[in-house]
Amino acid sequence: MALSGLDIFKLLPKTNCKKCGMPTCLAFAMALAQKKVALDKCPDASPQAREALAAAAAPPMRLVTFGTGEAEAKTGGETVLFRHEEKFHSPTVLAVTLPDDLAGADLKARAQALKSLSFERIGQAMPIEAVAVLNASGDSSKFAAAAEAAKATGKAMILISEKPDAMKAALEKVKDARPLLCAATDATAEAMAKLAKEAKCPLVARAEGAEALAALAEKLKSAGCEDLVLWLDAPNGWAEMTGLAQIRKLALKKNFRPLGHPVIAFAAEGEPEAQAARAAALVAKYAGIVVVATIEPWALLPILTARQNIYTDPQKPVQVEPKLYAVGEAGPDSPVLFTTNFSLTYYTVESDVEASRIPSWILCVDTEGTSVLTAYSGDKLNEKIVAKAMKSADVESKVKHRKLIIPGYVAVMSGKLEEETGWEILVGPRESSIIPRYLQEVWGS
Ligand code: SF4
Asked: Which residues line ligand 1 (CB under 6 A)?
């Protein structure tokens, strides 16, 4: 748990020697609490003080990584219970199962399908980061073969088996991919911890209830496994959701270290739509990794959309690079519209312009990621800012005409903008969805 300035002050020498560049130890302690300076600046801090401050500075939830290189996935490292308190740091890793009871050609086909799954929304790539190899057959050699097929997808890997023998067989094939081993129970803790330690892989601890989970995590830690992920075995969805919330609170609010690890949860049963609904709920309620069985893009996209929304920094709107964009084969006779660089606004306008089938230019104006009305009311969007954006994008050289279409919501700035730019201002629709019809009527031949 973070220490206050006064807590830190008690640990300092209190000589006010000024070697740290601060006038007093108290001033240094306050700056340290606000993370404005490092403890190293005080040469006289005792080893005990250094140890206490380092322990207090450790994050309440461990950051766990698995996979290697571009396929590395990370989970955990969270510091707040609610997103609005700061932000969430590690977007939930979405994993899709690859069961080892599939026959050769089917196994390869599913692995290939997993490899090609990729999504994009409001300009951001939304990957499926991991493949969860499932030891559905119970057979060690089939599990190892499926793990090899999973490796070819180039995604991070989770090996799911309760059997240490099967885990060992798969690890022999894919150890270098640094998979997440899932899972050790109280009965298999020793054997699974040995495998994880030898292969230097993170390990999942699986138990019923937070108390048993905490005990198992401590047992695995004392066996040398620090990189742990928790799997809460719960009898039903309600017990799972409340259990996950309890774990999160104990870890982040009470700084209860045994539960200070990310959580894996499963939404791999039922129809794809049921999996999507459950997975989205798990993303919202603190799962660091969610495993689904569906590879239906229409079921995966809502989960990824929920993840994107929850893991966006609430203090930093998602932004698009401010510049002039061509939609279609835009040329010298194409219309020019402007909008703001708030991603949701820009991509809504872009798709509606595209739907008009009239190649166009969209000038994306830097409004610090705010929407049209917000930007206008906050004076981040005015005639001078638009004129400057037009100049820096050299819009004049791109078109022969001098007509600019502005959002209907800022019709009020048309007069001043006309004076500032010398361009004829056409007031476009208020709602983006009207843009296709508007462009057809105003610009269509
Ligand atoms: Fe206090 Fe250390 Fe700064 Fe000296 S260097 S004033 S002891 S905090």
From this structure: 12-13, 15-20, 22, 25, 28, 42, 44
Which residue has the least CA distance to atom 2 on ligand 1? 42
Residue 271 Cα to ligand 1 middle (Å) = 63
Which contacts (CB < 8 Å, 24+ apart) does range 217-221 have? 217/258, 217/259, 217/261, 218/258, 219/186, 219/189, 220/184, 220/189, 220/192, 220/193, 221/258
Ligand 1: distance of its center to the CA of 50 in Å? 13
CA angle, corner 152, sides to 146 and 153, nearest 5? 100
Q: How far apart are the C-alpha atoms of 210 and 236, rounded to whole Å?
A: 15
Q: Which amino acid is at 398?
A: K
- Tokens (6 digits) for 319: 């932004």
Determine the pLDDT at residue 186.
97
Cis peptide before 183 (omega within 30 of 0): yes
Please name the residues in contact with 392: beta carbons below 8 A apart, sequence gap of 6 or more: none
- The whole-angstrom separation of Cα 422 and Cα 190 is 77
pTM listed for this prediction? 0.77
pLDDT of residue 344: 87
Q: Which of 10, 14, 19 to mutate to test the pocket of ligand 1 (most atoms within 8 A of CB)?
A: 19
Tokens of 272: 């794809």
Which regions of the chain are under pLDDT 50?
none
Distance CA 264, CA 205 (A): 10
User: For residue 197, how far is its CA from the centre of ligand 1 (angstroms)?
Assistant: 42
Q: Residue 445's pLDDT is what? A: 67
44, 50, 53: which to mutate for ligand 1, most atoms within 8 A of CB? Answer: 44
Which pLDDT score is estimated for 31? 86
Cα-to-centroid distance, 79 and ligand 1 (Å): 29
